[in-house]
Structures are given as C-alpha cells and as structure tokens.
Amino acid sequence: GLKETSAFLSQRNLKTMAENNIECNSVVGGNVEEVPNKKIIKFNPPLYKQRYQFVKNLVEQHQPKKQRFMISAGTGFCLGNTSLLCQYSDFIGPRELARPSEYLKSIGSRLSPCMGDHLDPRELDLVITLYHGSVLEKDCRLLGFDLVACIELIEHFDSEDLAKFPEVVFGYTSPAMIVISTPNSDFNSLFPSTVFRDSDHKFEWSRMQFQTWALDVANRYSYSVEFTGVGEPPAGAEDVGYCTQIGVFRKKAKSTESAVLEHHGEHVYEVIYTTSYPSLQQMNYCRRVVTYLVYREVHRMKRRCQVSRRQHELEPESADPGNPTRKFISDLPVPVLTEADKAMEMTPQPFCIGDKFYVPLERIIACPRLRHICGNVEKLREFLADVVELNCDGSAVKVDLHDCGDY
C-alpha cells in the first residue's frame, strides 16, 4: 500500500539555522572540556541527529498501521536532516516542508530515486511530495496521519501562534501519536552563554513549564503524554535533565477512518516537487527482480554442477598421493549449510539432460526472498512466463549447461 509522510518546517533564515546547529551541536562521551571561563559541551552523535533518531526509533517500535508520517521542524532542519529522514523508508511519502520555495526546489532533485533504487526496489510504494506551507494552517491532506513529529518547533512561536498550534495539530489533524521536542532551559546553565540557543526563539521552557503546557494540551484534546529527552548532561550535572526535552502524546479515543474521509477542507499548501520510487508493488519492477533472482539461483546451481563434474573427471588422475591436483581437491573447504540451504536440500534436485541444465521451480522457490515475493510455485511460474525458458510441463527452468560465460 502507499505509504505517506509529511514534514513541516517553520520559515526561518538559513543563517540562523546554521548558527543554531553550531551552538547546539556542542558532550563527547559525556565529558566536559574546560576552556578559560567557558564550558564547551559537545554531543556525540550531534544533538539534531539524536532528535531525529529518537523519532525514527519510535516509528520502528510502534509500526503505525496506516504508515503515514509527518515531520514538523524548526530552524535546525536542513538538507542533512532530510537525508536522515529518508531512512524512514517504510514511513515516507508526501513530505511537507515550509521552507522558502527556492530552497525546496533546490533539494527536490536530491530526493529522486537513484540507480540503486531501480536495481533493488523497495517493498512498498513510496511517493515523496514537497509542499510549502505553515504548520499553523489547516490542510485536509493532513488528516489521517498516524504520527506527527514537531522537532524544535514550538519555541519559534509567539504567544498567538502558540495558542493556535494545539488547535491545528491536536484538534484538527488529530493523529494517533504526536512527538514534540523543545530546548530544556534547565540545561542552559551548562552553556557558555545564558541567552536563548537561537536568536529566533521566542521562549525556552524549563521542564516544569513544558510539562505544565503539555499536560494541559493533552487533557484538552484527549491525549496522554509521557516525558523523555535526548542529549544527556555531563557527569555531575544530572539534575538539569536532558538538553532537549521531548513529550510523546498518544490519542486516547481513536477516530474512525470514515470520519476522517468525510472531513473535507481546503488545500492550502503549495506543491513544490513530487516523485515516485520503484517498488515491488509495481508489476514491471517485481517481475524484473524475480527474473534476476531466478537467474542468479540457477547460475549458482549450474556452477556447482560444473565444478562437481570437473572434479569427478579429475579423480582417476589423482590416484598418486603426490599429485598436486588431488591435493587441491582434498583441500577444498567444506561449505557450511545455512538454514535456507538445508531447506533447499529437501526440494527436488537440479538435473541434466544432454547439454541442458534443469532446476525445478520447487527448488527455486525455496530461496527465502523469492518465496517472500512470489509465495508459491504457481505465482513464480506466472512471473517467469515469456521471460525465462521452462521445460515442457513448466515445472523447471531450462538453461544451457555450457555457454561462453562459463569459460
């Protein structure tokens, strides 16, 4: 099925974004390096990576049923983070980014499928669409999501926008899960400067302030909330908590799909770019992968047969213990059979008739990935029709035992 993701960014200055990364990407191994009159705290991995990895782990842990995923982010979001988000391969689709149109257009081509995506298609469909818009605007395309992640976003809101944010995200979009991260001002005492971590921040909350706001919003919109964070403090300063505090909200009363589909509204976001990735849901790519895997398995078995025949032909010449050919054959490593190999050995063996080599389809379908894609021999036969030569009753793949590529 089609998997979708949306990502929203507040429209901010790129210079501010870079400054934010420099200031906040600052604890290697939990150690603090002392410099004259200053403390430099460095996070490894960088703090922005820890935030997105947290969301990625959360998605993988809960496996949302609809598999529609949205990201909202503040100034710390850049192309490198977009690449990281692309690792959410099972939960990516339309990506809404509220960054200036020129910036979105410049990165659109980098989200296109590469040659490797065509050679090894993904399991499920993936459509990536970039939109330009604001997380404070209601767009009906945002309805029905399983998870919304707002990464370093709310601290950029003034009081009016902050009041509107829960109404749109919790009330209107109303996903099954919402993840909100924001700076923990309790941690700021460890930084060289006591000012906000970014010049665009309108506020930075302590843990008590964030939890008070989050519990109030959760109560108003029928969510539960748990608190955690990323960016551990250095030894001896554990009382300040995580550098980034995170609230994970879960909806108590789940809305039905029909209710979501009946909710009509406007499309307020501008479409900047869209692309579709190859997948095994598309018949042409699926058949191509199956054909490649079949030829690979058949060639592997044919080579094994050829080696066995050559060794058998050399055996009479190996009677002399000093014969180097005999020594070479005896020194060949004994292959270690995997569980897949053992299962395959229980199937009908390949065989030769004249100069033709035959591999039963029952043996080919024992290949784990082919069994996963095709399911059974009948489906495998359908994929191979008119593409791979089969024997007269269609029960085995038929190839030449010897060809120029074997020498």
Automatic annotation (TrEMBL):
InterPro entries: Hen1, SAM-dependent_MTases_sf. Belongs to the methyltransferase superfamily. HEN1 family. GO terms for biological process: piRNA processing; RNA methylation; siRNA processing. Coiled coil: none annotated. One of its GO terms (cellular component) is nucleus. GO terms for molecular function: metal ion binding; RNA binding; small RNA 2'-O-methyltransferase activity. Transmembrane segments: none annotated. It is an enzyme of class 2 (transferase). It comes from Balaenoptera physalus (Fin whale). Its cofactor is Mg(2+). It catalyses: small RNA 3'-end nucleotide + S-adenosyl-L-methionine = small RNA 3'-end 2'-O-methylnucleotide + S-adenosyl-L-homocysteine + H(+). Keywords: Magnesium, Metal-binding, Methyltransferase, RNA-binding, RNA-mediated gene silencing, S-adenosyl-L-methionine, Transferase. This is Small RNA 2'-O-methyltransferase. Its EC number is 2.1.1.386. Methyltransferase that adds a 2'-O-methyl group at the 3'-end of piRNAs, a class of 24 to 30 nucleotide RNAs that are generated by a Dicer-independent mechanism and are primarily derived from transposons and other repeated sequence elements. This probably protects the 3'-end of piRNAs from uridylation activity and subsequent degradation. Stabilization of piRNAs is essential for gametogenesis.
